[in-house]
Amino acid sequence: MTLLKRFLIMMSVVLVGLIVQGALFSHLSAARDIPPGKLSAPLAEIPMTLGSWMGQDLPIEDKLRHADEHFQRGYIDLETGQQLTLWMVFSHVGLDREHHPEICFQVAGQQEDAAARTYIEVGEREAPVQQMRFGVNNQHQLVYYWHYTLPRPEVEGLSTLQMEYQKLRRRSASVTMQVFAPEMSEHTAERAVDFVKLADAAMQPLVGLELDDSSHKRS
């Protein structure tokens, strides 16, 4: 085979590759306008009463606002008097997941008791709720962290490849939930976990989940 023929074959392969690449890019680009997942109702729709817990909305500082919706409510257990705070953030581009307690508390000067970290199985979640312990001197609190990834709406006419490309190109909408429970007694964790389960169940309708439906991603 002459050098010219080899060159022509090589150029043909390159040209075909460029054509295929262009066609693939054009095909994938059609998915860029898929809308993000949405909440079925505002975060404020979370019930003020959860079991024996009674809530009261708390103000949110401007410096804590970094996403689409923010929620902060204090709850008190009418049976024991225990108090805790429920904090939630919704972002249509997943910005809520950039604020993990492990980082935020370190910035605030509170160290984590790494030996106390554990995981709580809640309902049929794919991933457990993280339980962490932070504090300074003799003041500590338990922090529970988990999030929901909201599924994107179905769009007719898009291929599986386009849908997968969209997932890689842009993070899914999500909601982060955190519960802060100051340590007051040996029963702090026990009652806080009960509250976490109630809050998790109350959140499911807002992210389009049924209580007995484990087919959606909730981690």
Structure explained in plain terms:
With 219 residues, this protein is of the alpha+beta class. The protein contains four helices and nine strands; from the N terminus they run αββββαββββαβα. The N and C termini lie far apart (59 Å).
Q: What's the assembly state of these chains?
A: single chain
* Helical content band: 25-40%
How many β-strands, per DSSP?
9
Q: What do the pLDDT scores average to?
A: 78
Number of discrete helical segments: 4
Radius of gyration: 24 Å
The helix/strand series, from N terminus to C terminus, equals HEEEEHEEEEHEH
Strand content: 25-35%
Report how far the terminal alpha carbons are from each other. 59 Å
What profile does the largest beta sheet have?
A: 9 strands, antiparallel
Low-pLDDT runs of 5+ residues are 210-219
Shape: elongated
Structure classification? alpha+beta
